[in-house]
Design goal:
Helix content of chain A: 55-70%
Radius of gyration of chain B: 19 Å
Distance between the termini of chain A: 28 Å
Strand content of chain B: under 5%
Order of helices and strands of chain A: HHHHHHEEHHHHHHHH
Number of helices of chain B: 13
Largest sheet of chain A: 2 strands, antiparallel
Number of strands of chain B: 2
Largest sheet of chain B: 2 strands, antiparallel
Largest interface: A-B, 52 and 50 residues
Order of helices and strands of chain B: HHHHHEHEHHHHHHH
Number of helices of chain A: 14
Radius of gyration of chain A: 23 Å
Helix content of chain B: over 70%
Number of strands of chain A: 2
Oligomer: heterodimer
Structural class of chain B: mainly alpha
Strand order of the largest sheet of chain B: 1-2
Strand content of chain A: under 5%
Chain lengths: 376, 311
């Protein structure tokens, strides 16, 4: 969006004294309050006390022993996915296939970890790198379709998710590919073999909570994304492309090249998230059919809620992870755990409203100012 | 090689295959028709997926409560339009990005469906098959087209209705102008964002009906994954059809046939890799999109928000 090059007279009505601050704050509070009231209503309608639900959520996310470590472990891939989404959206591209790209990353990690012989740390590094590449290339399919043939990436990335599920399904049921060949495998369900202990991410124990190195990796990624977007030429190009593709192209930013890079990055972080998940021991460090477990969707929502600011993604990712891990404790209250999915989506939807309203107000101001500026 | 040809011949000559192709195609066509109208007005309405799921859920719940298919379909349409109203007002009244809104709405409906399914546990049921005399005797396609559950026949009415609305009414002209040149339409006094919202509502009604049809006319029971991304395949059908009514319907039928093929192969006793078969509709859609998207001229303002004074 560009603003009009209208010269605004300083005394234009509506411009004097931007009553912004309080109004905007109020707007946000009303929006979030609305989302929470609907959520509470939903719980109440299903015949439960929402107070005890909130208590169980907090208990499950932070207070019970070992839980906040678990929350951080869940937040790690969510944060990684959201960072890629941020880069993509800032450049103007909506990759909504993170769920699939994450699976591709996990698949690459599983392949390296269980089918290649070598020293543990080397395999771990290789697996993570290859996971990122796999996720990036999978998003690259959508990029190819977009920049060669004009297929909107919103559609192709999503369709590719369903293909990814089948690719994983094929991998874990095929002997030469990833299927666990150990006759003593613990469950009858088809999975890949477990990642050997030497190929896992190191875990630190802090006050009885296990924290994987992965979380710090993700934090580092957030800092990196913020820096690249705000302070580098490449980041500037991406933002330019996102805010005005025409101007970007006139300034010499290649639509296809920069766009494909943005899509690749958004896929690569999702792939890395999948690899990290597996290496951190998600689902017993085995690739399974439902391995992605909607982490991709979560990351996407986090990016939207954090309004595409990489550093803001950190607290939002932890919040969403907390809702997820907290929902594990909901069984005792009788409310189904899926209620948190509703809460999350409502929050995101509610928080779309304030900036839109602000935008409209600003537009109105500009047009009033323009009418005043023009002698009738 | 001969085996494959023989097998394909076998599959494509089985009347069951065409029956299920029509059923699946009809489901897609409900959504695709609505999506066509929304896209003609300038929105790539990805909340169609959410409308379908909401329609399926609402239809099932209403059917469970009342035992009436008519009420089920009505509730489906209402649920579908509710979802569409959220999406339309967020993106064409508040000017939030249409993709962001669409994604969020889809996730919201998915969450709601999961919650309600777990809490209330909808069951669903299937409407009776109505065979139209005479017409159903047409060889090969007769049974497929005219011996279906009765909600199928709703679509046969909606096709001319949509055509008439879009091409023979003032409203339709304004909708199309909002999608082709919103600035010009605005100057001529057309309420561009209003028309866009209404187009999305229409899409919501049709998608809601489609979702309810999926449960009550076809599957028979609700499941959270019942729509499974086919809203996006419906969008692909609109692209396939080059934004024409006829083409969109052909696209819906084609993709429906891919779905039916997937179901028919194991039934007829052929061994094909299960995962490949399950991925087939999505793969076919992707391949078709790759080759077809550039062929046609899309509505020029497709996916561009309209704010007066900005372009």
């Amino acid at each position: 969006m560009s603003t009009d090059p209208v010269a605004l007279p300083p005394d234009a009505p509506g411009l004097a004294g931007r009553d912004g601050g309080l109004y905007v704050l109020l707007l946000y509070m009303v929006s979030v309050g609305f989302a929470l009231v609907i959520s509470a209503g939903l719980v109440a309608v299903s015949g439960n006390a929402w107070g005890s639900v909130a208590e169980a959520l907090v208990e499950g996310a932070f207070l019970a022993p070992g839980r906040w470590g678990e929350t951080l472990a869940v937040a790690t891939p969510i944060l990684l996915v959201s960072l890629g989404m941020v880069v993509g959206v800032r450049a103007g591209f909506f990759n909504i296939g993170q769920e699939g790209q994450l699976l591709m990353g996990a698949l690459a990690m599983a392949l390296i970890g269980t089918r290649v012989a070598g020293s543990g740390p080397l395999l771990l590094m290789g697996g993570l790198a290859l996971g990122a590449v796999a996720g990036g290339l999978y998003a690259g399919v959508a990029a190819l379709m977009r920049f060669r043939r004009g297929v909107p990436e919103v559609i192709s990335t999503l369709l590719l998710v369903f293909v990814a599920f089948q690719i994983v399904g094929f991998a874990i049921t095929t002997d030469w590919f990833l299927r666990d060949l150990d006759p003593n495998r613990p469950s009858q369900a088809v999975t890949s073999a477990a990642l050997p202990g030497s190929v896992r991410l190191p875990v630190m124990t802090v006050w009885g909570n296990e924290v994987t190195i992965g979380f710090f990796l993700a934090l580092l990624g957030a800092g990196l994304a913020a820096f690249v977007l705000a302070r580098t030429v490449f980041g500037f190009k991406l933002r330019l492309l996102g805010s005005n593709p025409k101007v970007a192209q006139q300034a010499g930013v290649s639509f296809g090249k920069a766009g494909a890079t943005a899509l690749f990055i958004s896929g690569a972080t999702a792939g890395l998230a999948g690899a990290v998940m597996l290496a951190a021991g998600a689902s017993s460090a085995r690739l399974t059919a439902g391995f992605s477990n909607e982490i991709g969707w979560q990351g996407l929502l986090v990016a939207l809620l954090a309004r595409n600011r990489p550093l803001l993604c950190i607290p939002v990712a932890i919040l969403f992870a907390a809702l997820r891990t907290g929902s594990g404790f909901l069984a005792a209250t009788g409310v189904d755990r899926t209620v948190v999915d509703v809460v999350q989506a409502l929050l995101v939807l509610a928080l779309l409203v304030p900036p839109a309203v602000e935008f409209m107000r600003d537009r109105r101001r500009v047009s009033i100012a323009a009418q005043v500026a023009e002698p009738a | 090689m001969n085996d494959i040809v023989g097998a394909l011949g076998d599959i494509f000559s089985s009347p069951a295959m065409y029956g299920s192709a029509v059923r699946l195609g009809v489901f897609l066509a409900f959504a695709a028709l609505g999506e066509l109208v929304a896209e003609k007005a300038g929105t790539i309405n990805i909340s169609v997926e959410g409308s379908l799921l909401a329609g399926a859920l609402g239809g099932t719940m209403a059917y469970d409560l009342s035992g009436s298919t008519v009420l089920g379909l009505t509730a489906g349409a209402v649920a579908g339009v509710l979802v569409a109203m959220v999406a339309a007002n967020m993106s064409h009244r508040l000017t939030a990005d249409q993709f962001v809104v669409g994604i969020t709405v889809n996730v919201l409906v998915l969450g709601l469906a999961g919650f309600l399914d777990a809490t209330a546990g909808p069951l669903g049921g299937r409407a009776g098959v109505v065979t139209i005399p005479l017409l159903s005797r047409i060889p090969v396609i007769g049974q497929a087209l005219f011996s279906q559950t009765w909600p199928t026949y709703l679509l046969y009415g909606l096709i001319p209705l949509t055509w008439w609305l879009l091409y023979r009414t003032r409203w339709g002209l304004e909708v199309r102008s909002a999608g082709e040149n919103p600035q010009a339409a605005d100057v001529s006094g057309v309420d561009v964002n209003g028309r866009r919202r209404q187009a999305i509502y229409y899409g919501g009604v049709l998608s809601g009906l489609g979702g309810a049809f999926l449960i009550l006319g076809q599957v028979g029971s609700f499941d959270v994954g019942v729509v499974g991304g086919r809203g996006f395949i419906a969008i692909a059908a609109v692209y396939f059809g080059g934004w024409t009514l006829r083409g969109t319907l052909i696209g819906a039928l084609l993709f429906g046939m891919a779905d039916a093929f997937r179901l028919a192969v194991p039934v007829l006793g052929y061994q094909v890799n299960a995962q490949l078969l399950a991925a087939l509709p999505y793969l076919l859609t992707l391949v078709v999109m790759y080759f077809i998207t550039k062929r046609f001229v899309q509505p020029s303002a497709l996916a561009r928000p309209f704010v007066r004074g900005l372009r």
